[in-house]
Write a structure and sequence with these properties.
The complex is a heterodimer of chains A (about 350) and B (about 375). By secondary structure, chain A is an alpha/beta fold. Chain A folds into two domains: about 180 residues, 3-Layer(aba) Sandwich (Rossmann fold); about 160 residues, Dihydrodipicolinate Reductase, domain 2 (2-Layer Sandwich), CATH 3.30.360. Chain A contains twelve helices and 13 strands. In chain A, the strands form two sheets. In chain A, strands 4-3-2-1-5-6-7 form a seven-stranded mixed beta sheet, sandwiched between helices. Chain A has a six-stranded mixed beta sheet with strand order 9-11-10-8-12-13. In chain A, helix 1 packs antiparallel against helix 2, helix 1 packs across helix 12 and helix 5 packs parallel to helix 10. The radius of gyration of chain A is 21 Å and the shape is globular. Chain B has about 375 residues and is of the alpha/beta class. Chain B has twelve helices and 14 strands. In chain B, strands 3-4-2-1-7-9-10-8 form an eight-stranded mixed beta sheet, with helices on both faces. In chain B, strands 11-12-14-13 form a four-stranded antiparallel beta sheet. Chain B has a two-stranded antiparallel ribbon with strand order 5-6. In chain B, helix 1 links the parallel strand 1 and strand 2. In chain B, about 45% of the residues are buried. At the A-B interface, helix 1, helix 2 and helix 8 of A face helix 4, helix 5 and helix 7 of B. Chain B: InterPro entries: AceGlu_kinase-like_sf, Asp/Glu/Uridylate_kinase. Chain B: Belongs to the aspartokinase family.
């Protein structure tokens, strides 16, 4: 039985769902794959727990019950303040799971944590897009020279293995990737079409249901979808810069626009597109014919079309639900554990 | 597979949960099960009165939100842990955000979401109370485990999807030896929208979990010792019914019996015939089985109800539709001179319905209770 030590940094919705999923499934995983995944440390923004011998299932599930940013209240093994070096000194994790929130201004704290982990010899799995969008080359190079893996399947269509599939299309010349990459704005637009809510009402409903953040600007200004296009561009080997992506705000759509579009047999969608031949990318409001595939992608679903020189593929799935994303993160951890030299 | 023979389900009704003392009291009683080598899955309702108050919150009442806030923060404060107090505040903060986003127009999905906080916070408090009395406990999330259709306000459980979820976690939970606590009354659709299960929904959650996990015993805890032969506010001599069948319980529920939710028997009929115990922490006086032995057949409950402005008396019990029992009832009525508007019974149903004149239902009820339940012995 191969034993893998994991440190989880960032303990919000996805972090908790990841730890809970692991606690509930790791017995089955160890029987199935012969790997024993130990969580040796968890950190949130204000504190951390470190247990070099690994937290047991009960402890992991109890940790998921602590209040927001309240890991320091856990009692045993918990302390106030976060010191990633202390985690590595005391527990020497083999895999670093970086689940801190995205900060597109600086990439922090994700970028520093990821580089630190790589320098200390840990493979990295992350769902945080910002460090990759801003420092993809640096991170990948750091991993490459140390023969470590950096996995980030959960960053685009987090509930699906989309990125894995895209990166496996190695013989293809990818010409275009386009689709609905942001679940929050797609939900808002669906509400506007189906329940005839205006943008503000639909946004408020999305916030009430926990689909939109209290500050939804990253989603509605197209920044989140643009960040995903950047990651896609790196994966297919045709990198673009986020500042070069043309973005429109979904907030400018009125209920009248929706009604006009419907009268004309269209629906309004917020479409992110990367033209890898022209090397241009955009996140735009588009009128899509009602019988178009994208018109059927509603609610929190995501849908992407990949056009290569050889084929055209559609990929539809849940975007970023915490449970689905946690499973994708766990899939990355399992893959690293199975393939890595850790 | 882990040993599940010691698993059972206990539903703690909201009428029992009034303050921190009642959460501790419930926890101490759960502890007795644990000390008896049982591992109960606790299905918890919202604290008393909270669901109705949350329905007002869903209509935009700030005062009602403040009431929920006060009740739950006081219980959390009195239970003592800073961690749980903060946790409850976090939940209330989310509730507040949702409640304030409700602006005009009835939205059943938002109403269900708002109402669900009654059970969500109650669960946190129950887990804390269990730990205060020295019982290891864990939260389960009904919105991840109980899958329903999208009929907001009266959703029906998708048994297959729910069974899949429960099966996946049960072994892990059993291996932690911690008492799992789950919210009753709430669930979620396949795509994650919160739903509620309608009146008596916590019983339905409890029996569904028991039936889907094939557990033998379900305890539905309320403030009375069991189901009574009649409404004690009308008939002071009403006594506890010791054994009933599912069919009798469902028939009684159809005629409006309190403390029985007809939906709760559906999973038991379909998947596994768990024994349902109804009563208080002091005494689980009523046992409900799928099939009752022959000697237990006969009248169990008598009640009155009004349908289409016509009052009627219902006598519930397997075997009451046979000719000799019908004759007995007819004889009692005939001898007492009660004016009957109609009498209805079918061989396949465990009931006799006697339509009486308006104003005479209570006296007839008392007469029949005395003759059938009291003078037999």
């Amino acid at each position: 039985m191969k034993s893998i030590n994991v440190a989880v940094v960032g303990f919000g919705n996805v972090g908790r769902a990841f730890v809970k999923t692991l606690a509930l499934k790791r017995k089955t995983l160890s029987e199935k794959y012969g790997i024993n995944i130990n969580v040796v440390a968890i950190a949130d923004s204000k504190g951390m727990v470190i247990k070099p011998s690994g937290l047991d299932d009960y402890e992991m599930l109890k940790l998921c019950e602590v209040p927001k940013s309240g890991i320091h209240m856990f009692g045993s093994y918990a302390k106030q303040g976060v010191d990633i070096a202390e985690i590595y000194d005391k527990a020497a994790p083999n895999i670093h799971v970086e689940l801190t929130p995205a900060n597109y201004a600086t990439g922090e704290p994700g970028y520093t944590n990821i580089v630190f982990a790589l320098k200390r010899g840990a493979h990295v799995v992350t769902a945080n897009k910002a460090p990759l969008v801003l420092y993809y080359r640096e991170i990948v190079e750091e991993a490459r020279i140390r023969r470590l893996m950096i996995k980030f399947r959960a960053t685009v269509m987090g509930g699906t293995p989309f990125l894995e599939m895209l990166s496996s299309m190695k013989s293809h010349d990818i010409e275009k990737v386009e689709g609905i990459l942001n679940a929050t704005t797609n939900y808002i637009l669906t509400e506007m079409h189906e329940n005839l809510l205006d943008f503000e009402q639909a946004l408020r409903k999305a916030q009430a249901l926990g689909i939109a953040e209290a500050d939804p600007s990253l989603d509605i200004e197209g920044f989140d979808a643009a960040a995903k296009l950047v990651i896609i561009s790196y994966v297919i080997g045709k990198p673009i810069n986020i500042s070069s992506i043309y973005r429109e705000s979904v907030a400018q759509i009125s209920l009248k626009d929706v009604l006009d579009a419907v009268k004309q047999g269209h629906v309004i969608k917020y479409v992110a597109a990367l033209d890898a031949q022209k090397m241009v990318a955009s996140v735009k409001i588009e009128k899509v014919p009602r019988d178009n595939v994208f018109a059927q992608i509603n609610g929190t679903l995501n849908g992407v079309r990949i056009k290569s020189d050889a084929t055209e593929l559609f990929f539809i799935g849940r975007g970023g639900g915490r449970i689905e994303t946690a499973h994708t993160v766990l899939d990355d951890v399992i893959e690293v554990a199975l393939r890595g030299s850790a | 597979m882990s040993d599940r023979s010691n698993l059972c389900v206990i539903k703690v009704g909201g009428s029992l949960l009034k303050d921190s003392g009642s959460y501790i009291e419930a926890a101490k009683n759960v502890k007795r099960f644990v000390e008896n080598n049982q591992l109960p899955i606790i299905v918890v309702s919202a604290a008393k009165g909270i669901t109705d108050t949350l329905l007002e919150v869903a209509k935009g009442s700030v005062e009602s939100f403040n009431k929920v806030f006060d009740v739950y923060t006081e219980i959390a404060r009195e239970l003592g842990s800073q961690r749980v107090f903060k946790r409850v505040l976090d939940e209330l903060e989310i509730l507040k955000r949702i409640a304030y986003s409700v602006s005009g127009g009835y939205d059943p999905s938002l109403q269900d979401l708002i109402v669900s906080f009654g059970e969500r916070i109650s669960k946190i408090l129950m887990v804390e109370a269990l730990e205060v009395v020295g019982v290891r406990a864990l939260e389960l999330n009904a919105r991840e485990l109980i899958v329903t259709n999208d009929v907001h306000g009266d959703a029906t459980i998708d048994y297959i999807a729910t069974a899949n979820h429960l099966e996946k976690i049960v072994n892990s939970i059993v291996s932690t030896a911690a008492v799992p606590v789950i919210e009753g009354f709430i669930g979620a659709t396949e795509d994650g929208r919160t739903t509620t299960l309608g009146r008596g929904g916590s019983d339905y959650t409890a029996t569904s979990i028991a039936a889907l996990l094939k557990l033998n015993d379900v305890y539905l805890v309320t403030e009375v010792d069991g189901i009574l032969t009649a409404d004690p506010s009308i008939i002071s001599t009403a006594r506890i019914v010791k054994v009933m069948s599912y069919a009798e319980a469902m028939e009684a529920a159809m005629h409006g019996a309190k403390r029985i939710n007809p939906k709760a028997f559906e999973p038991l009929e379909k998947f596994y015939s768990s024994t349902v115990y109804i009563g208080s922490w002091r005494l689980f006086g009523t046992k409900i089985l799928q099939v009752i032995p022959g000697e237990c057949k006969g009248p169990k409950v008598i009640m009155h109800k009004t349908s289409h402005e016509m009052p009627y008396i219902a006598i519930i019990g397997e075997g009451v539709a046979n000719v000799s029992f019908i004759k007995k009832v007819v004889d009692i009525i005939y001898e007492s001179g009660v004016e009957v508007m109609g009498l209805q019974t079918y061989y396949y149903r465990p009931s006799i319905i006697i339509h009486v004149k308006r104003g005479s239902e209570i006296s007839t009820l008392k007469l029949l209770h005395r003759k059938i339940f009291e003078e037999v012995e």
